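Objective 1.3, modelling of assemblies. Example input:
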Amino acid sequence: MPRSYKELREVIENKDRGLREKVMSLTEAIHLIQDGDHVAAGGCHYSRTPMAAIWELIRQKKKDLVYSRSISSTEGDLLLVAEATKHVITSWFSPGVTWGVSRAMRHYIQEKLAIYEEWSHMSLGLRYRAGAMGIPFIPTRVMLGSDLFPRLPELKEMECPYTGEKLALVPALNPNVAILHTQRCDPYGNVQSEGLPFMDQDIAGASDKVIITTERIISNDQVRRSPDRTSIPFFQVDAVVEVPYGCLPHECYGYYEPDFSHMDYYVKLMMGKGPEGVKEYLDQYVYAPESWTDYLEMLKFGDILRATTDGRSVYND
Amino acid sequence: MSDYNPAELTVIMGSRALQDGQIIFAGAGLPLLSAIHAQKMHAPSLAILFEVGGVAPRITSLPRSTNEARSVRRSVATPATIDMMLYLQRGFVDVGFLGGAQIDRHGNINSSCIGTLEKPKVRLPGSGGANDIASSANRVFIISYHEKRRFVEKVDFVTSPGFLEGGQAREKTGLMGGGVEKVITNLGIMEFDKNSRSMTLTAVHPGITEEEVREKTGFELPVAEDLKTTTPPSEEELRSLRALDPEKRYLKAGDF
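Predicted structure (tokens):
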């Protein structure tokens, strides 16, 4: 059942929203997530994925999460196989077009070990936006007539009271915790992102708590020199964690492209052995390393260098 | 005559269907290749929009996904995903360019599951923005490899609505976008009858017979009285296309 507006509002009213430092460790930040929470991840597909946060929540053995994201890539496989979630809300779920349909996703969904609640990309985005607006739903002109419609009991149809037109109504989505990765953030949680904004702003506004992982922590003065770049203000943010290369093997605009050779390696393992391959990957790359830095050390420096060179090239010409 | 494979032929036919000055939504893979190719050949001011990407990028290196950094290259704007989708709902997008695992007589597209959603034989990745594009674009082009298992009487699941059961069924649901206008495959081009909204073969590619198309279609496919034959890809079109995908990630021989 969706929570009442009163309840959602009380959570915001009662939390410390002051202009204070919120810098903490990855471990501490992920402690803000409780078993059973709805966790929404920012970015999209293999771009600006909060991979370090996901990696840490798997290590902390979070259970029964509802996981939502605009489009899910390899991180969705990891969450399913680690049994952190049995309920994924997204619009598209596989590593990427050239890598084929995820065998891990197919296994979990086809064997009914987990639910993939499929919304169209726009309807899911509107759900976060309604959540951020503090309203119960948004009308839209998509989803009508499709077979997705009858599969989603929360989706309703209405006749517009002004025009008489048929419209679909998508209900607000208010996650308990948002995990978002960005390029720059100050210690108070003022987020300045580059490249595509994705759905991050709406997710931050819709969620009870927001965890920011960032490539760099910049000073509050830096933020004040370019306030027009701020996409998420401090009062929406509960934790700030500096995690350079926090999206790898996914990409972070202007900093690095995906580590394609590691993605190829993962996909080969996952497509070859299914969930067993993902388990092997989790053992090796998620559970075994002692820290995110140790995990990064397991990737090949030459691959990261290439990803970084290509990623930074957007500023070259 | 030039030698070309089915993917190359289809992408070039898709490219020719696009016009200069149009605003289009393209998915990763073949639709995107058609769009970039059209920009190079005859539609320099064609503006490509991605469901999660930049506005009118100048793509230099083919992205594997439409939301990655490469798809933003030299864009004029990088809107939030939902704002990009709202351009579509507001009516700014001339053409939505889609593919799908199954396509039926009335242009409905399935990218969710083979079998039922409750008991799928194969769970597919899902709608992404396809439902939104099919719902709201002024017109939709579908690009696909032509085979019986893809062109079915009725899709297992309507992820993205075409003309639903045909006739006025689409309009009755409240959908405002124009629906599917063309289906472009490696065998020919299909359009939709104005009344029944059923797929009709209107053109075959050089060397392809009407019988071959009908044989590879999983439903009874009517043929237009004035059936046309398309002009084969030129050397220049092929050269320009091959330069876009030197690793042959999308333009490999065989099906696609």
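The mean pLDDT of chain A is 97.
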